[in-house]
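job 3f2a | input accepted
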Amino acid sequence: MLTPNDIKRIIEAEKEVFPTKDDFEDLRQDFSSLKTAVDNYSKSTSDLKSEVSILNHRVTELE
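job 3f2a | predicted structure (63 res):
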């Protein structure tokens, strides 16, 4: 049979092991920030690729 002390231990262990809804909200916000950063990086990479292509075309015309 479980003693009151055993029940307290189980409750404390549950708090340490299982994430709460707030923990998931923090992760969601972190993931959203990461997604925004990756999108911005992707856009800047795409812009740089376009610039390199234009410069390459100009150099080819000069030759």
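job 3f2a | The chain is about 90% helix and 0% strand.
job 3f2a | closed
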